[in-house]
Amino acid sequence: MTGGSRTRLIGGALLVAMLAGCGSGVERRESIEIEKYSAQQIFERGEFELERSRPADAAFYFSEIERLYPYSNMAKRALIMQAYSYHQEADYENSRSAAQRYIDFYPADDDAAYAQYLLALSYYDQIDEVGRDQDLTFKALQALRTVIERYPDSEYARSAILKFDLAFDHLAAKEMEVGRYYLKRQHYAAAINRFQTVVEDFQTTSHTAEALHRLVEAYLSLGLTNEAQTAGAILGHNFRGTEWYQDSYKLLTGQGLELKSRGDNWLSRIYRQTIKGEWL
């Protein structure tokens, strides 16, 4: 080992020891004249904080490299680690900001795919926290699509595809939730609008069968038997093995109705297109 290497190693070890001996959080940070240390030493401190499960402190040290050594190669590494640390802290806004800066500054770098993936996760990981607000879900879908399309050969593309499908399913689930709410309160027209959205726009999700059954329920309640029978026909053709088909079959046959396409309505058009292959 050369004298310079020994000096850097000793310096890094001293930094870790000195900082570890101080208090925590802002008090510890302010007690150290961080400008005295190299980018490598500060980076190692950030890694140390991550190992101690202190991602907020790690993000601080990585951000200091960006501030003190903005044009160094270490600043590039620190920026992606800053985005990761903020994400570990569930500070999604700052994680997204750091990831976006990395994409803007280093679009051709190997870690650009990971930065885009972190950006997508900053939306995706909040999906279950937003109630009926779908804005973050749409943003997650857009960001995940960017990973898939811009970095198709990256190790993150497959995970992005899986999360995209789950986020898409989440949108359908929210439509179903609102539709059930209206159906339970006998607001049939409003319920039908929600279930129609699922059938037309989210037909590849796991909620389509239930949406068709709920349409049978809603249309029967309104006395619109043609629409109810047609929804049952689609359900019987595509989802015969589900509980939703069984429930719709009992409802329709219990009223002397068949599960067949009848009339000229939006469901009969779907029946002709998807089952009979008639597109005109």
TrEMBL record:
Residues 38-231 form the Outer membrane lipoprotein BamD-like domain. PROSITE patterns: PROKAR_LIPOPROTEIN (PS51257). InterPro entries: BamD (IPR017689), BamD-like (IPR039565), TPR-like_helical_dom_sf (IPR011990). GO terms for biological process: Gram-negative-bacterium-type cell outer membrane assembly; protein insertion into membrane. It is found in: Cell outer membrane. It is a lipid-anchor. Part of the outer membrane protein assembly complex, which is involved in assembly and insertion of beta-barrel proteins into the outer membrane. Gene3D superfamilies: Tetratricopeptide repeat domain. It comes from Sediminimonas qiaohouensis. The keyword Lipid metabolism does not apply. Pfam families: YfiO. One of its GO terms (cellular component) is cell outer membrane. Belongs to the BamD family. This is Outer membrane protein assembly factor BamD. It comes from the Bacteria. Keywords: Cell outer membrane, Lipoprotein, Membrane, Palmitate, Signal.
